[in-house]
Specification:
Helix content is 29%, strand content 31%. With 519 residues, it is α+β, with helices and mostly antiparallel strands. The C terminus is likely disordered.
Amino acid sequence: MLQEFLGGSRHAVVLEDGARIFDLADSKYSVSGEYNKCLLHLWSAERNAVRRILDAEVRNGSLRLMVQKLGHARPSKLEICRGQDHRTPTARRVARSTYQQQLRRALERHFPGFTTTKLSNAMDLERSFGPIYTRGILRQGRTAFAVLGVNQQETQASIDAALTFAILWLDICRNSEDQRVLVEGVKLFLPAGTSALTRERLAHLHRDAAKWQLYEFDQRHDEVVAIDCNDRGNISTRLVRCPDETAVLERFADSIHRVLSLLPECEVAVLSTSEVAFRWRGLEFACARLAHEGGSFRSSQEIVFGIGAEERVLDERNANDFTHLVHALRAARGAQGARHQALWRLHPERWLESLVVRDISALDEKLDHGCLYSQVPAFSASDRAMLDVLTTTRERRLVVVELKADEDIHLPLQGLDYWSRVQWHHARGEFQRYGYFPGRELSPEDPLLFLVAPTLHIHPATDTVLRYISPDIEWTLIGIDERWRDGVRVIFRKRSATRNLAHWQRTLQPDLAEKACAG
């Protein structure tokens, strides 16, 4: 039960007696059954903990454990939660109701002459709205603004997602309001100190489509501060130097040979000069790395294995466990595998990515398979620090590929995050300076953005959000066959208006010129 739950809990947090002690996004764990006892070992850069598991149950998406600390007779409670919001339903309702009242008073005070109407956080699943966001309209005569706010007790992920819902709310207001009323734009209210990512996203929205106004609302001091959306600020991104793959593969030749002897077709990915990862259909199950030897300054190679945050150093005592994991992966993680098995369901986006990387031209024949990087550790966007796929066209123009295997309303803006960071580094010539695309001269044009998802799993709101992205960004939405595990096949492509115009200029204008000459 522990291994299955934790294997699918990439961003879970661990609570002990109500206190948060570990975040599995930056922690590791191992599960063992030594001496007929179930032991859970958790560790991070800050702390280390071992607990004996006495009882376990899964309830409401959380794994609740009765545990015993080493050297303690009395048991305690450990809870592993997949969500980041651990408040009770009552606490969430009270916080959101209080915020709605505070926001109404702030709107009346800071925008005199406007009337606040329809302020609510009611559930509206038909339009993809939940109770997290307070929505309303500010109206003055025949002009109005859509309003959306989120309180300071919500998770950072919910705060970062607010812009998607603000765009949708703006579009709804424009379609539902009296046609004599002009909804000029949207006023978005975020908690103090949380608007950096949203400000960066707003810089790449369509300026002529709406007036985009961002505010930070300090609930404690009841202060509203306007944020300049034209200023992208200091982009929180860094580019890691591309390692010499040939040298790294030679360094880890023995470890690679050992793993490939068990699973010859697995993917070997160079993560850094001191670490390589082993993946099967996109699911990472082991890595080889350099580790310091105890009592000396020397380093030696070690192989660690496990799914997700699980990590065990491979040795003679657990070699059979590693072999069993490899065989289980091979049996379960296939195109015709059993869908109820956890190993088949885990990390579908990485599975899709492994297929795309194998043949990037399946998405578009203009993409160059010889210039491709996956999982580039460079971009500190919303909740990830990895770019799915970075490649080029045959004309050496950069292409950012964002992949989704499941329905995600935030696909357009998450793709925009990575596009903006690639554009930032490309404008400064940093890719080639850091060892990417060696021997190739990249086009000075801005990157292209490809958004890829199974056709029936593209969220209905995607088209609406894409209409509000800046026309300077050339994007392509690609719907692929739902049976992509059997092979990636494109069902449709939808391109931005800018790209359609460029295509018209390339194809139709020469014909018009020829006709003019003939005339």
